[in-house]
Amino acid sequence: MTQTAPTGSDSAESAVVDAEARFASLDPRTGEVVGHHPVHTAEDVRAAVLAARSAAVGWAELGFDGRRARLDAWRKLLVRRLDEFQALISSETGKSADDARTELTLVIDHVHWATRNASRVLGKRRVSPGMLMYNHAASLEYKPLGVVGVIGPWNYPAFTPMGSIAYALAAGNAVVFKPSEFTPGVGEFMARTFGEAAAEHAGVFQVVTGFGETGAALCQAGVDKVAFTGSTPTGKKVMAACAESLTPVLVECGGKDALIVADDADVKAAAAAAVWGGIFNAGQSCAGVERVYVAEPVADEFIELVTKQAAKLRPGGEPNASFGPITMPRQVEVIQAHVQDALDRGGRAVVGGLDSIRPPYVEPIVLVDVPEDSRAVTEETFGPTLVITRVPDADEGVRLANALRYGLGGSVFSRTRGEELARKMHCGMVSVNAVLAFAAMPGLPFGGIGDSGFGRIHGDDGLREFATPQAVTRLRFRALLNPMTYDRGTRTVRHVVRLARLLYGR
Ligand code: NDP
């Protein structure tokens, strides 16, 4: 007997639960079953968190060096099994082999970086006690939180959650990971390989699979932090659920990233970057280029170059296809609605159009003359589409880029004003004369502002997200003047105030 996935969830319409309480992940290119996975209940999730909590003790005791040895072994195993991992990602998301390989090289780089840098960022260090407390020693250490719940999306099913998983593990936490219902096999592969590389600590990284309900259960299972990556509406639900138990959250949500082309830009490079940034992975990238603001003096040349390049690209399931299908069937309706709205309101398609939408594939669509308040400009489309808008100059482009509540990433093309314009953009990350360069640099924090969420993965800040600072002081000798005791005389306080005036009042 089968039943459909729980109603009211964001689950795929096609998802069914079999008699053994399992659901299937499907290859979006063919509809074939890739694998079957358990639908974990709230009770299962609580059990996984309990098991992770007991495994966390030994993992924390290993210290930075002990954990580094295990995480290095895991990284090397992932490198050895890269082809197998790539094939699994391609079959659950449909993405091309090269897109999946690119994702995996970033995954491996992040595991390496987090492992190498955890001790420097989080390890115990001395802090100056300051002038008034000169008779104390002070130190700061970042301790693990305990168990971190990670909830991930399907578009980068390995790269995106690894930005939390590797950093949380390196910081000394255990992890319970709930992958998207579209990519459960990828999540299981990650936990299985970790278990092979660090057999005696396998319980430190657990995976629970299922639909939105399983993710919701993870938020209420007593974890010490939830690291969520997904859409803004689900991010709000996660935050509300976590509020009940004051569980801290890291929320990495969607974006509507803009690329600004100034009149002094290398127009050829900007056009190539816009096409790749908007269309790779079928446009299903949180920080992909969705909007372009191009300065009028170079707009004709830019639009012509983009049109030529985008028109050549073809989606498909074959190895030499430019990009793959739309992974989540209902996203096709969103893409269609945005294109329809843009065309209805005076926009023009210079590449493709409504008939480019042939599920599960969508060919490149490039739109111009689209009003700023149309859905194609204000909402995340998550398809191989670009909206190009002419602006008098780059400053006006920045103003329009900043007009939305989303603020994940952005890019600026300019020969002379790149960094100046970048600083004016309201978002968490900007690449100058490139697209998405920040995502490939493990040392930089990744995350956004506004509707794109808060908190950071990657870099020093990403490690600190999964640790709690503990400040410790130690009295070294008795001070001549000690105002923090009832034994003090009034002269003591007067002396201390005089000292403070002398030191800080001038
Ligand atoms: P969703 O928000 O639909 O789902 C994200 C995850 O949350 C999935 O594992 C999902 O499970 C789970 N979930 C669903 N409902 C709940 C709930 N009530 N409580 C807890 N967890 C729940 O996002 P998508 O998977 O569709 O991913 C695409 C989105 O992710 C886009 O908006 C994209 O921009 C964003 N994203 C952001 C990134 C960033 O770093 N800022 C990076 C990559 C993507 P299930 O799938 O089983 O429903």
UniProtKB/TrEMBL annotation:
Organism of origin: Umezawaea tangerina
Protein name: Aldehyde dehydrogenase
Entries under InterPro entries matching the protein: Ald_DH/histidinol_DH (IPR016161), Ald_DH_C (IPR016163), Ald_DH_CS_GLU (IPR029510), Ald_DH_N (IPR016162), Aldehyde_DH_dom (IPR015590), Aldehyde_DH_NAD(P) (IPR012394)
Active site, UniProt feature: 252, 286
Alphabetically ordered keywords of this record: Oxidoreductase
Classification via Pfam families: Aldedh
Gene3D superfamilies found in the cross-reference section: Aldehyde Dehydrogenase, Chain A, domain 1, Aldehyde Dehydrogenase, Chain A, domain 2
Domain called Aldehyde dehydrogenase: residue spans: 21-471
Similarity comment text for this entry: Belongs to the aldehyde dehydrogenase family.
Gene Ontology molecular function: any one: oxidoreductase activity, acting on the aldehyde or oxo group of donors, NAD or NADP as acceptor
GO biological process: aldehyde metabolic process
